[in-house]
């Protein structure tokens, strides 16, 4: 199945040197008084008493910069098949899509939202809400929230990172935990006693995800210019770009890495004259 991701800018887990840039200048003049409007134009306040050493007017900027730092860390991690981007309107919501590459959920396309508490970084772990229905022991069938508490019993400031959460969510598609406190008891029970029926449920879930991915956002938080949208592949529209990518990949594979040390020699920067 060919699909096309249409979005203003997005992050692909892997090599990405130019990870994340907000539009506009960061060198914004701080407003007078107690204005706590952040860079993104939203009101941000921190209730943490430990921040008393920070000028109150700097708190919204401090919060957003720490989240940008988290995103830049994520952009350098190789998490296969994961696409993530912060919302344009607020840094406290990140949009994501996971493409499982093998296992029971292979070929599925699962949307999720990462909701970060506005008291960041002095808060609990972010919430992961799946918008695409996902039959999984850790996912609440009514709310779509994935439980990650068993993996993060304690969220440690400065140690626990947002990329840890996304990495854990990705791995949950391949190594399905047999937890004693599942969010979906039916899924947990089938996984335990009837693998064949559990696999059938997963197949239905994957097929439905391939249909739902083209739907427009319904949740108010998703009305955002950075929301990840998908189009059906059209050869006339997308063919040229696809061929250019494939050609670039073929050229990269033909590139030879030269040793610069002639075999049988210990002299550095020596090579055969025929190369």
UniProtKB/TrEMBL annotation:
Residues 62-211 form the UBC core domain. Signal peptide: none annotated. InterPro entries: Ub_conjugating_enzyme, UBC, UBQ-conjugating_enzyme/RWD. Gene3D superfamilies: Ubiquitin Conjugating Enzyme. SUPFAM superfamilies: UBC-like (SSF54495). SMART domains: UBCc. PROSITE patterns: UBC_2 (PS50127). It comes from the Eukaryota. Pfam families: UQ_con (PF00179). Residues 256-275 are annotated as: Disordered. PANTHER family: UBIQUITIN-CONJUGATING ENZYME E2 (PTHR24067). This is AKT-interacting protein-like. It comes from Aphis craccivora (Cowpea aphid).
């Amino acid at each position: 199945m060919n699909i096309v991701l249409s979005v203003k800018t997005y992050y692909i887990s892997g090599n990405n040197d130019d990870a994340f840039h907000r539009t506009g200048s960061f060198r914004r003049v701080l407003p007078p008084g107690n204005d706590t409007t952040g860079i993104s134009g939203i009101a941000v306040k921190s209730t943490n008493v430990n921040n008393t050493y920070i000028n109150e007017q700097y708190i919204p900027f401090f919060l957003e910069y720490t989240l940008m730092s988290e995103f830049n860390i994520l952009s350098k991690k190789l998490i296969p098949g994961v696409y993530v981007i912060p919302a344009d309107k607020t840094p406290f919501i990140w949009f994501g899509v996971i493409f499982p590459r093998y296992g029971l959920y292979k070929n599925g396309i699962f949307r999720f939202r990462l909701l970060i508490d506005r008291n960041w970084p002095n808060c609990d772990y972010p919430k992961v809400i799946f918008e695409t229905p996902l039959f999984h022991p850790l996912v609440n069938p009514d709310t779509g929230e994935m439980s990650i508490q068993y993996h993060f019993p304690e969220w440690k400031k400065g140690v626990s990172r947002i990329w840890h959460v996304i990495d854990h969510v990705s791995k949950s598609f391949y190594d399905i935990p047999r937890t004693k406190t599942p969010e979906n008891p039916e899924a947990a029970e089938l996984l335990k006693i009837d693998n064949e029926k559990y696999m059938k449920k997963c197949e239905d879930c994957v097929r439905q995800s391939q249909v739902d991915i083209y739907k427009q956002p319904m949740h108010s938080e998703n009305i955002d210019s950075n929301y990840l949208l998908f189009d059906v592949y059209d050869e006339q529209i997308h063919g040229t770009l696809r061929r250019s990518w494939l050609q670039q990949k073929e050229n990269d594979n033909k590139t030879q890495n030269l040793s610069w040390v002639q075999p049988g020699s210990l002299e550095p920067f020596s090579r055969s004259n025929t190369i």
